[in-house]
Design brief:
Length: 282
């Protein structure tokens, strides 16, 4: 079921057991725009069926927030203009060359080009995958792009991110709603989960310049301003105490500076920043 955020914005909640991210729908007077195309044709079809039940203008645009498979493998299902930033386009080119039969999938997983969960979802949720080829995006932008859906402006911006280097966010000014994709999350490199520490403050700045009250996140669905502020605060405090690859030193600094123990989230973030220090020191 779609969740209604306002008269013109709906979203399909993330579904973690099937690696399905949050999908968004924004409607103007003339057109509708989709945010992320789903992790598979089946996910996309489920979303399109829900949209059919709404009385909204036709879907003219699909914006893909970044080039992680769970956000774009459903894109062939949309008869719409697919929009990505330049770097997302570069990464997606690799996926356009892949074959999706069992033998090829197993080869990609063995070579660490694809994770096992991705293979599993492809096997269950892409019908006719022996002949499946991912389409190319239609519009590629550099830094920002503004789209008018008919008395409804959407601002796309490629921002700095702790998750990937190709993160696009979508801001709808007259609703004070922003779709963040996965940009505010960490990432895994060489099996180490980390937040790119050098990009944390630039990212928060990039996001906070928009006057948003509701935030849609790829694997959380919705957060209000207060929840987002707490998230930024915990991340920032954790980052400030991590200055080396020593977890002990970071926790000690945390206690000295805040005169308390870190909570579970802060401890999780501190570990992720320590991991980032390790990756940077390699
Ligand atoms: Zn992602």
């Amino acid at each position: 079921m779609l969740n209604k955020l306002s008269d013109t914005i709906y979203y399909l909640s993330n579904q973690d057991d099937r690696e399905r991210p949050t999908l968004g729908l924004v409607s103007g007077e003339q057109y509708s725009l989709i945010i992320d195309s789903g992790n598979s044709p089946r996910h996309a079809k489920d979303f399109l069926l829900e949209i059919e039940n709404l009385n909204v203008p036709p879907v003219k645009y699909v914006v893909i927030t970044h080039a992680h498979w769970d956000h774009f493998l459903g894109m062939n299902e949309f008869d719409a203009t697919v929009i990505v930033n330049r770097q997302t386009n570069e990464i997606m080119k690799e996926w356009q060359c892949l074959s999706y039969d069992d033998h090829s999938l197993q080869k990609y997983v063995t070579a660490n080009q694809m994770n096992a969960m991705c293979m599993e979802i492809i096997q269950t949720d892409i019908p006719n995958r022996d002949s499946f080829k991912l389409k190319s995006p239609d519009v590629i932008f550099e830094n920002t792009l503004t789209i008018d859906l008919g008395n409804k402006i959407c601002i796309l911006e490629r921002i700095k991110s702790t998750h990937t280097d190709d993160s696009t966010i979508i801001y709808i000014p007259d609703e004070k709603v922003i779709f963040l994709g996965d940009c505010a999350y960490g990432t895994t490199t060489n099996s180490l989960f980390h937040y790119k520490q050098s990009l944390l403050l630039p990212m928060i700045k990039d996001i906070q310049k928009y006057d948003a009250e509701m935030f849609l996140l790829g694997h959380e669905s919705i957060c209000d301003l207060n929840e987002m502020d707490i998230y930024w605060e915990e991340l920032t405090t954790a980052s400030q105490v991590v200055r080396s690859t020593s977890l002990e030193n970071a926790i000690e600094s945390f206690k000295v500076e805040t005169k308390r123990d870190p909570n579970d989230n802060e401890l999780f973030f501190i570990k992720a920043f320590v991991n980032d220090q390790m990756i940077q020191s390699l």
